Structure formats: structure tokens, C-alpha cells
Amino acid sequence: MLVLVVATALGFDFTNGFHDTGNAMATSIATGALKPRIAVALSAAMNLLGAFLSVAVALTVTNAVVKTFDSNATSAHAALTMSGDKLLSIVLAGLIGGIVWNLLTWLLGLPSSSSHALFGGLMGAAIAAIGWHGVNWVGDGSKLDGVVGKVLLPAVASPVVAAIVAGLGTWLIYRITRGVADRFTQSGFRWGQIGTASLVSLAHGTNDAQKTMGVITLALIATGHWDHLDSIPFWVKLVCAGAIALGTYLGGWRIIRTLGKGLVEIESPQGVAAEASSAAVILASSHMGFALSTTHVATGSILGTGLGRPGAQVRWGVAGRMVVGWLLTLPAAGIVGAVMWGIGNLFGLTGGSIVQVVILVAVAGYLFARSRRQPVGAHNVNDEWEADVTPRAVPTGAAA
Amino acid sequence: MRDAFGHDVRLALGAIWKVLLVSVILGAGMPALFALSIRSLASGRLVIGRVAAGVLLLIVVYAVVSGLLFIIASGQGKDISFSHVVPQISTAS
To answer: Which domain holds residue A237?
Structure first.
């Protein structure tokens, strides 16, 4: 059971990596500042580094949506608010919900938030297991917490903030460099792109790998394999960093394509503005304890550069599909999480978790097989964006 | 419940303003300085252009390094203060 939970958590970490490569690297790939393969390798290295740099314990990550953990407790085992088995079954079902939604949105080329997928899955599993009160809906008023404070409000605000910043940055850049010869702007801004994109990747590694580390450590505590509240076993750190880096390296080309080519046509200066905006928004908000999703910020930034550059065109159809994807993330991952918990509950603890993982592997295999029909990889990630190449399925206005 | 919801919204609005302010300064300001430095490089005035470009680039590099330090420090669970030009890292309170 524990082995399955750890393996599934690493699977989630992996999908998290390849789902989010595009957040940092889509613009660099689209403008040609970096070759696709080099871009994902750089991003993977930065994610790996970031994951290792972070030693702060993210044990409370699940607390944002499910009351699993009492951080006032002094001993690790006493801190759990429910029995270890129950906690494990909720975490496993929640992780599967997150992975399935991540894979589905990847197939559709939709950049959706991996953290939301995880939170949604956990919420669904918790509702199925404990009931509506099992979910931590709102904070206690002293700080931003709960589903509303940590998930919903940031999701609404962060793309808007990022778009404003990136739009302003783009406008300023084009204003300032008007009339400057192309040979200066092109090479200069390409370096700027590489720097800013690396910064975003590093921030991503420190934030997102930490979430999986927290989940795995929580599972270890639940089964009595670990009893420290303020540290993470080294092997957990190692495998989490490896999983997210490997995922990043394989690259979610479909999502990179949507972000880099689908939303707006990007030039180097826009890429700098977008990534600088993403980096600034991510850092500023994590400094203020405002939890947000890298995906929402990156998407908002890229949209903003389309608005800020005179004459640039934003494909609102693509943007609309993304927003629909975001709205669906929480409930959809939640439903999968709840169903998975139900199935697991049917077969008992050990049998149930095996059945769940088998289902997960089958679904993942099916989605992967579907993806082979229209492969998107390093070779064609920058092809011209045409309506008929875009993966369809979310019936909300075709891409323009 | 409704009260707690209101609290969350108020807290979020307070945080959003700060995030927006800081992000505009760093996220739009730094690229603008970067653009200025490219402009001065391309201005044709060799010495003045290069010195200006260098100074501007230094400011941008300082901001980027501060950002890096911030990521590392918060990853280690430390606080970081930029109130003295050189960033100070301290144990989180």
C-alpha cells in the first residue's frame, strides 16, 4: 500500500514536470532563443536544482484543502487527524485524480494547473471518504487558507495580475527599442529570455517538487515509517527531484505548443516580458504567502504580451478553451478522486489500492495511445498554428 | 462560513495589490531597463553607450541575483530582507 502511494506520488510529480515545462520554456522555444531539446534540458536541470535547494518541509501542503494534519502537535504521529489507513486511501485516490486530469489536459494540449489537479483529487477523495466537512473550504480569517483562499481566489487573480504586468512590460520594451536595429534586439533579448526562463524553472522546481515531497512524507508518517516533522528523508528528496526533472525533460510538447504558438505569436522581446512577469509574480506572491499556480501565471503573462505589443493578435478561442479547462480542473479531478476512493473502498485497503493503480495504468496507457495519433514533439512543436491541427474535444469554440 | 469567506476575500485583495505593485516594478521595470541598456548599446556612441548599458545591466543582474537568492532562501525555510542593499538571509521567524 505504501509502495503504491509513493509510486503514484512520483507518477504525479512526473506529470507535474512535463505538464509545466511549457510554463517556463514555451516562449523561448517559440522564438527560437533555444532549440527545443536544449530548452527542456535546461529547464529539467533548473527543476532538479530547485528541488534540491528546497529543504523547507511542505508537510502541510494537503492541509490547504483537506484537514489532514495538525501542525501544533509535537510528535509526528499524533499530528495526523485521522487513522493512517484512511489518510493513505484518500491520498492515493487524490493523486490518481490529479494524474488522470493532468494526462487528459496534456492530450488536449491545455495548460492546466497541476496543483489544482492534486487539490481537486484530494478534495474529491476527502468528500467521498469523510463528507463535505472533510474539506477545508475557507480559512480561519487570520491568513489565506482553505479552498477559497489558497485555490479559488489566486486562480482568478494571478492570470490577471500576470497579464497586466507582462502587457505593460511588453509595451515599454517595444516603446524603448523602437528604431533600434534588429541585430541588437534579437541577440540581446534572446539572452534575456534564457535568463528569465531559467529563473521561472528554478522557482517551479522549489515549489512543485516540494508538494510531492510533502505528500510522500505524509504517507510515511501515516504508516509509521518516519517520525520527524521538520525534515524529509533524503531518498524522498532524491526521487522527487528526479521525477520532476525527468518529466520536465520529456517535455509536454503539446502544451508547449499551445502556450508558445497557439495563444499569441511571440517575438523575443515579448518572451522576455512574459517570463520576467511570471518570475516577478511568482516570487512576489510566494513572499507574501499568496499560493498560486505557475501555469496560471505563465498563461496570463503570455496573453499579456499579446495585448501589450501593438498589432499582435491574441487567439481568444484558445484562451477561452484554457479558461474552461481551468474551471473544470477542480471538479473533474475531484470526481476522479472520489470515484477512485469509492472503488478502493469496495475492495478493501490493499486490494483496493492495487485495483486503483491498475485502473490508473490502463487509463494512462489509453491516453498515451491516443496521443500517438497526432504526435507533437521537438520536431513539430513550432509548426504554424492551424485550426485543424489543434487537438479538439473540449467543445468550446474552435481555435481561430 | 460566510464571514470566513469575506475574510479570505479581504486578505486576498490586500495581498493582490502588493503582488501587483511589486510585480510591476520588477516584472515590467526590469525588462524595460534591459531594453534601455540594449538601446544604449545600439546608440552608436561607443563609450557613453557602453557605460550606460553596463550600469543598466548591473541593476538588472542585481535584481535577478536577488530573485535567485530569494528562491534559495525560501526553499531553505529562511527569511530574506532587501532593506540593506546586500540581501540579508535570516532564519524564518
So the answer is: 2-158+193-257+328-371
